[in-house]
Design brief:
By secondary structure, the protein is mostly beta strands. Helices cover 5% and strands 49% of the residues. It contains seven helices and 42 strands. The strands form six sheets. The protein has a 26-stranded mixed β-sheet that branches. A five-stranded mixed β-sheet has the order 4-10-11-8-9. A three-stranded antiparallel β-sheet has the order 1-2-3. Strand 13 (271-279) and strand 14 form a beta hairpin. It starts with a helix and ends with a strand.
Amino acid sequence: MNLNLRLKTLLIGRTALLPCQSLSPEKMAPAYRNPADPGQMSKPCYKLNFSWKARRFSLVTFGIAGYLLSSGLSLANTVTAQTESTENSPLNIGEVLKATGAIGSKATALKRLSTIPIEELANSTQSQLQVGKDQLTFLSPLAGGLQLAEKLPGVYVSGSNPTGSVGDNAIMINGFSVGSYSNTSATPNFNSIAVTFDGIPMNNPLSGDGGWYSAEIPIADLLSSTNIVYGPGNPDVRWQASIGGTLNFIPVQPSMKPSVKISGSVGSYGAQTETFDAKTGLRDGWTGVLAGGYTSGNVPGLQYGYPYRAYAFFAKAIKFFDGNDRISFGAYGENAYYLDNSTVPVTPVAGYTTNGYGVPGPPLSEATSGFYSTMTPEQSYFYYRDNSAIFFTKQHIALSRTGQFDNKIWFRDSWRVHFGSGNYYGNSSPDQIEYYYPNDTTVGDRVKVSFLSPHNDVAFGGYIIHRNYHSAWDLYNPLYGTSESVPNTKNNVDMSQLNEYVYVQDRLHFLQGAFSVTPGIAYAAYQTTLANLFSPTGSPLANGVTNDTLAQGWYTNFGGVEPSLGVNWRVINGVHIYGNVAYTNENPNGEAYGDYYEIYINPNNIQLTRNLDFEGGIRYHSHALLINLNYYHDQVDNQLYGLYAQGTNFAPTGYESANSLYQGVNLQIHWTPIYNLMVYATANVQHSYYTSLQTSNNQSFSGNLIPSIPLHLFSLGVTYSHIVLGGLAKANLDDRYIGPAGMANPISGAVTLKTNPYNVVNLSLSYKTPDVRGLIPFARYATFRIGLFNLLNRNYNVNESIGSGEIEPGLPSNAVFGYQGAPRTVFGSLALKF
């Protein structure tokens, strides 16, 4: 058997996909159906064969069909928004869904839970991409959900532990962000990405401190895929915080057949990760999955140890009824702990020494005391404990042969403890120690009714969400006789919100599905209340304690219409031109209401944030080449966020009111020049700036860059695969470049400096083999991985910011602090599939 034929022979459990030339014509499947998975578009040159006729020395692996069928390394399950060619099947999306997905087999329904069908992405009027679990082969075992999402263009992750999700991290998508406040401070694009888990919203749009934390998805190996809708998208996928995009983490899903997978890894700086997932298979109409994992280690490279650890568990059960109706029940929970390292001066700053702030000694900086030098954990520390739990149920009911009803109900609870010393003015600060304990609870219901017809696919529905957010902290210093129970400064604010959303959209498709138009209209309403529980309010002092929120209590009732229009045109087979324009609204977060502001916020300044978004581009796909080019343009108005205007306070004492323009280009390329070689690249080039920026002290910085957004993002990678001793060996080499970004002065608001650009090269090797069956009972295959990350051992800061005001009051405006990126690290792992 020659090498090419062996690469095109794949045993999956007890099934094999063989060249259909060996089959009689009457046994060949249609071009758009695969008997093993009717929802998967496939070429007519392969047919399912239930036999063990393929010899054992041929390739025996699981889950790599997307790489090895037809052209070798196809892209169906990797980072792609394209589909196989539909040259022989010019069906429109409505017909495809009716034939193979929307009202199809149980196998199809389960397949659609793990990934968005590729034909649906290709025909979408939205700018939407997804990354499959295959890409985990190229990531560190410490990777969380954010690191998997970063494989897509326009996505940037920064923070205190960016190689893993257990840290003070944030994610940006086309300049919009969600995550840790400390990494997106003084930016108007904060908390403007909707984050969902299995389609259930996770983030808190009311929070001025993150709204969602990267530690909530600490282990990427528990995911089956991640997808992003760039911009607000169509009404039927939109959430409150989707003004800048929607990031959906899809966990491992139940399956038709039972299986068990376990994995373990070890690496540099005490790192280790263990995961499992067990699937019951379909039995008496029920199928389920139970998955979990543990990860721990120390932030790589630092002079002193900053440990972290996290647990995560997921369970889901689905019951199928007659006609493919179904109900599912799910639960997800995580518990994360980490000691957050402090930022370090890039060059010497007065007062900072290796002995502590304000203590005589050699200067502490990356340039003088060593690049990875830090304060000791005793000098400056922040202990975090993040916890969250989600419980949900979903129902899918066929209303007719072409109509369906979908509903999901959920409850989410998230609570955090943040305890530490920020060393504001060193030990002399009366607010030296911070105890912060926010809590967020959410309950919601979302319903959708849809009908498919030959030229008209209508969907309508909506959601209602109630959330309660308690923002509370105490600041104290025992040197002054204060404590957690008797603090020097206190914040105790309760916010609640009822969010209603209704929509209708209609997909019109013509020319045998080659041209489609999707108009939509939605209405979003928000009733929001802020209550200051620390009395008396409206005063900076209450019984001798500083009140960090002066707002007495506000109530707002906002609503707005959100029209949208999308177009997709298949110009020729394999070439799609698409565009989407949407006008959306978002209720501002707690900062706009004055939560933890030591100044009075005029309630007339509280307005809906509005975004006029345009996404447009071209997709080209063939068996060997994929190109996705996209342009985005977002005009966002009525943004409000805080400034440390006095330069001496823990909480903001000023604010900025801004209108901003986000614009740029994303590019994605995948090329398979030969069957076992894949070249891939992504690029993002953008110029985002303030069209208007006014501060509370009457300064204007219109035209300044929006801070913290890299002007350029590039990545380039090469993957080579080869059969060795009956198993599949793969090598991947990739390089990622992060360009400069503007830095805002947190006192004045001016963007006067830029961060330093950097690039990181990574190498990963893997080997998947079935030759463990004789050694380990019931084992189907084993996968060995080894990775070298930051192969060239470069020194770089993953995030840089000006330290005036927020980190240390009274510092010069050029005092730049950095979070050091990881040095060279090595990881090894083993996974077994049963």
